[in-house]
């Protein structure tokens, strides 16, 4: 089974990333109302709401991570992610594999 890692970006537009630590679980949710990206996936934290977005641009997707477009059809309406690394501008998180995530065979 393949592990999927994503870059969370845009956090400075919300609450920043300094409050997050390795192991934190967050929720990703397809953002159907996004006027700028048809494959937008927002990142939510309990008690905070939206804290950023899964990166979907060659300028923001860290090497070794999947873009929002790559995982968009692999998740249902939402999924869980787990924080693996916190950088000065972004977070790298692992998609938590559950039954509702479609994996390549």
Describe the overall structure.
The protein is mainly beta. It has one helix and six strands. It has a six-stranded antiparallel barrel. Strand 3 (41-45) and strand 4 (49-54) form a beta hairpin. The longest helix has 4 residues, at 68-71. The protein is globular, with a radius of gyration of 12 Å. The termini are close together.
Keywords:
mainly beta; 34% strand; globular
Mean model confidence by pLDDT: 91
User: What share of the residues does DSSP label as strand, in percent?
Assistant: 25-35%
Helix and strand content put the structural class at mainly beta
Which segments are poorly predicted (pLDDT under 50) over 5 or more consecutive residues? none
Gyration radius, rounded: 12 Å
- The shape is globular
For the secondary structure, the number of strands is 6
Helix content: under 10%
The oligomerization state is single chain
How would you sum up this structure in a few lines?
With 105 residues, the chain is mainly beta. It has 1 helix and 6 strands.
Topology:
Blueprint: E1 5-9, E2 25-30, E3 41-45, E4 49-54, H1 68-71, E5 78-86, E6 91-95
Antiparallel strand pairs: 1-4, 1-6, 2-3, 2-5, 3-4, 5-6
């Amino acid at each position: 089974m393949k592990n999927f890692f994503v870059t969370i970006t845009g956090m400075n537009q919300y609450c920043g990333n300094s409050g997050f630590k390795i192991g934190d679980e967050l929720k990703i949710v397809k953002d159907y109302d996004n006027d700028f990206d048809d494959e937008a996936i927002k990142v939510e934290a309990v008690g905070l709401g939206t804290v950023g977005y899964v990166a979907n641009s060659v300028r923001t997707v860290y090497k070794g991570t999947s873009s929002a477009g790559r995982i968009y059809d692999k998740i249902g309406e939402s999924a869980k992610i787990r924080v693996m690394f916190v950088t000065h501008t972004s977070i790298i998180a692992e998609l938590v594999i559950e039954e509702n995530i479609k994996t390549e065979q």
